[in-house]
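INTERNAL AUDIT FORM
Audit reference: QA-55
Scope: verify that the stored structure record matches its stored sequence.
Auditor: D.O.
Record contents follow.
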Amino acid sequence: MSSETYRLVSQRNEAGEYCFDVDMPDSLRLYDLEFYARFDGVKDTSSHFSDIIVKLISPSENDIYLDSLKVNLSPNIPDGYFSASNHIPYRSGLKPVEFGLWKMRVNVVKQPEGMTGLGLICKRR
């Protein structure tokens, strides 16, 4: 079972963060988390490395975890197409310390041109 949420650039909060709710309710399961960035109408498809800062807030709000990634957010738009997505694996086999609805805040530092938003896929194993 999996869930997918997508946020447009215009849906970021006041701090410029993409906000997601991540439901991890089952104590007997592991979870895989993956981001994806969407791009429209980009002419420059050269490598663009960005820092992504992830903040995870536990359901009880007693624990906050910070993570920083450096990822290649280069739009890989094939010839003749206007849009493309770039998938970014984040965590595989995650067993949360607390089960329930987590809050995730994601800041893409120096967001590349043409990026229209960020999505999150949560797969339950």
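Auditor finding: record pair retrieved intact. Residues 1 and 91 are 16 Å apart (CA to CA).
Action required: none
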